Amino acid sequence: MEESRIIIKPVVAQQFEHSMKHGRIFFLSAPCGFGKTVVAEELLRGRKVRRMQAEKPDFERAETDPDWKILLVDDLQLMQEEEQQRLCELIRKKTERRFVLLSRGVPPGCLLAFGYTGLMTVVDADGLLFDREDIRALFRNRQVEVTDSEISAILKKSIGYPMGVELTAQLMAGGRSFTPGLVAQAYREVFRYFEAAVYRRFDLPIRRLLLEMAPFDRFDMEMARMVSGNPHVGELLEWLQSHTTMLRYDGIARFHFWPQFRKFLLWEMEREYTPEQCRSIYSRGGMYYELRDDYSHALECYTRSGEHSRVSNLLIRGAELHPGMGHYRKMEKYYKSLSEQELKSSPSLMQGMSMLCALSGDYEESERWYREIQQFAENCDRRDGAGRQARSRLAWLDISLPQRPVEGMLETIPAVFRLLTEKELTLSSFSVTSTLPSVMNGGKDFSDWSRKDDLLYRTMRLPVETVLGRDGVGLADCAIAESKFEKGEDISRRLLFLISHMGEIQRNGTPDMEFAVTGLLARSQVTAGQAEEARRTVEELKRRFADSGQTRFRANINALLCRIALYRGATEEADEWYRSSAPRSPLNFNVMKRYRYLTQAMVELAQNRPDAALLTLAPMEPYCETCRRHIDSIHLHILQALAMYRQRDAGWREKLRQALDTAAEYSFVRTVSAYGAAVLPLLEELSYTGGGEEWRQKLLRDVLAQAAFYPLFLQPSLSLTTALTATELQILRLICADKSNAEIGEMMNIKISTVKTHVSHILGKLGVRRRAEAVTAAKKLWLV
Predict the structure, then answer these.
(1) Do 104 and 244 touch, CB atoms closer than 8 A?
(2) Class of 726-780 per CATH?
(3) Is it true that 202-275 and 726-780 share their CATH fold?
């Protein structure tokens, strides 16, 4: 019998068979082009089927005809409500019969009862999307040659959309490669089909609404009303929901388009609307976002609408409400879209440019913009509000610029405190932590203050908390606790005090401080050998922040959880973080990601990839030196020393000595001892004599304690007993590509017996017995 040319996903076939045996209704719900009809016909092949048109149903004949076992109804979304009720009656009456229903919409309300009782199986669009193996099978059935890399590219471009994959196979049937030109042609064919089969069948108000909402990833009812100007938009959206699955729910009254259909709508929008009409749509979208203080989306819309004055005004307002230095990196492209003249007209915009340049490591340009604000202030009368704003921006930068030493803040903060109390200045919000789980090593490095932490706590607490406002709630107590922790002291009482005041921080303070306190608690738990407790502590904060929409902390929370996973020995969790979240961008260094760079280097050491760790860390050296990041510098040099030690590079001694010199200068212990078992062999070899005997003994005790708690910290979980040869490595990669011995022999032009010998050697060197285990080991060792 000839092999079927229809690709039926095994899971869909299983659901169909289960529905035929144990249910009553098999419901296929997907947009056009998903092959619902051909899939249904293939599943029903050889069965007694009666077919019915949804637009003109013939229930009388269906009730009296005894020959059919299964009723197939296509385009159910076109059936009138009265006829849908008759269909339900037929289903209830004919208990021995089965029903296959195809629809571009969701199941109508009258059928939901069958779903609740388990009698209806619904397969939606996601269940019909092709995966890699489906694409491979379709091309094989069409007798079209396709490579693994082309399959990956087809899957990425088509997102598994069956019609897109089918069209691609047809276009490649003549021997064409998968090129951008072929992709563009496939898209045009799909778009033409959408236009004829779906879009042109809609009434004009529906078409207009679709085109006007297409520019927005997600929208709600209110946004649809504002952008479209249609007061009846709710009725149109309800109609779309019942007659098509192109529009999808994102929760209650929030929507998004199915991705391929949205691309079509944007294509159609460019063809039907003038540039002026498109700019007007983006302008109304920007207004909607602006009213909700969603400045990022509002700026994107106003930029597209060409309204530079609104971009400038929003950036000024955003600077007033800014949640930390990360805000400026997100707004960078909008700042740089403004002319120098526009920037110089506003102290807020110049402040933003000064901070942006500093975050990019261009400190000379940062100081130039600082001087521009100074010049602006000098040109204003002392009583001029613009001059007062400029002086406020200068005070903000004096405290916030990363290149400014903290020693100068001992003079700056009291001066600013006096001006604030005299109402000479008003300061915008600060982020002392820069969304990091630390005050001591957050927006600035306060190591120099830790030398006199008790004195500064008594004398600077009031002015600091006054100057920083909400950002200062809990800051002084968290900072001194962290300073004592770094010095290896017992901070249990200080932590209890902070935790007892967490409610006040949550009510009157900021999430930044809540994260800093939680980070300190988690580090303290890890130090006490309670890594699992630390994980729960941070996971609880992550859940709470997710519920309240505090997304700006997510990246560093996940990095903190990754570090805790390394202590717990949960290498798979750390590897997953590395694959999905690590920056891995040494050529595009971003100071806001420094916590993640250090975490990335730790994972790379745990993966036994010291060369990768050194590459990750290299861009941090000039930053740490210029901005006096002493704590980061200690971590940086320890990690560099560990990497070089594993490479048998004698330079590790100098790196470790640099770390110890800095730690000893500030009496820091835990900054070094956190590396426990990983750094212990290096300390034993180095015989460091600096820092004084008392400090060295304290450090060694703490390192030994951490080594006892976490003996495998940063130790590679797997290692090769013997290095693979070039041929063995090539064969291993082919094994990971799921190639058989015969295929490997053919590709490498060697005998199967030779392949088997190489495979045996590979398994032995990896310390595994089966090919599947070799694939897992190869991925963990980063050999593929």
Answers:
(1) yes
(2) mainly alpha
(3) yes
The residue among 381, 329, 317, 319 whose CA lies nearest residue 351 is 319
How far apart are alpha carbons 363 and 368 in whole angstroms? 9
Longest distance between any two alpha carbons in the chain, whole Å: 100
- Residue from 596, 666, 600 nearest 631 by CA: 666
- Strand, coil or helix: 72: strand
**Cα dihedral angle (129, 135, 137, 138), rounded to 10 degrees?**
90
CATH 3.40.630 at 447-568, yes or no:
no
Three-class SS of residue 599? Answer: helix
Q: How far apart are CA 40 and CA 26, in angstroms?
A: 10
Where residue 648 falls (left for φ over 0; alpha for ψ -120 to 50; beta otherwise) is left
Average pLDDT, the chain: 87
Q: Which residue has the higher pLDDT, 536 or 751?
A: 536
Relative orientation angle of helices 676-686 and 652-665, to the nearest 10 degrees: 100
Structure-token pair, residue 67:
């020959």
Residue 568, number of CB atoms within 10 A of its CB:
19
d(CA 150, CA 171): 13
For the ranges 122-136, 331-345, 520-534, the maximum mean pLDDT occurs at 520-534
DSSP 723: P
Among the four given CATH numbers 1.10.287, 3.30.420, 2.30.30, 1.10.10, the one describing domain 202-275: 1.10.10
Tokens representing 653 are 């001694």
Q: Write out the H or E segment, with its range, that includes residue 120.
A: strand 120-123
Q: Is 235 helix (H, G, I), strand (E, B) or coil?
A: helix
pLDDT digits (tens, 9 = 90+) for 432-474: 788 899 988 988 888 888 888 888 788 777 877 777 778 888 8
Which candidate, 79, 53, 51, places its Cα nearest to that of 67?
51
How far is the C-alpha of 518 from the C-alpha of 190, rounded, in Å?
A: 51
Helix (H) or strand (E) holding 51: strand 49-53
More confident of the two residues 1 and 717 = 717
- Measured in residues, the chain has a length of 784
More confident residue, 413 or 705: 705
CA–CA separation, 708 and 605 (whole Å): 20
Hey, what are 433's tokens? 């932590």
pLDDT at residue 4, as a whole number: 43
Closest CA to 331 of 343, 309, 307, 315: 315
Q: What is the residue extent of each domain of the chain?
A: 10-128, 132-197, 202-275, 337-421, 447-568, 575-709, 726-780
pLDDT tens digits, 596-620 = 999 999 999 999 899 999 999 999 9
CA dist 205 and 202 (Å) reads 8
Tell me how far apart the alpha carbons of residues 506 and 498 are, in angstroms, rounded to a whole number: 12
Number of H helices, E strands in the chain: 45, 8
Virtual torsion, Cα 303, 213, 285, 290, nearest 10 deg: -120
**Could you tell me the CA-to-CA distances from 354 to 190, 331, 363 in Å, in that order?**
48, 13, 8
- Sequence-separated contacts (24+) of 743-747 with Cβ below 8 Å: none
The answer to whether 137 and 146 are in contact (CB under 8 A) is: no
Domain 10-128 has CATH 3.40.50.720: no
Going by C-alpha positions, the residue among 230, 193, 197 that lies closest to residue 211 is 230
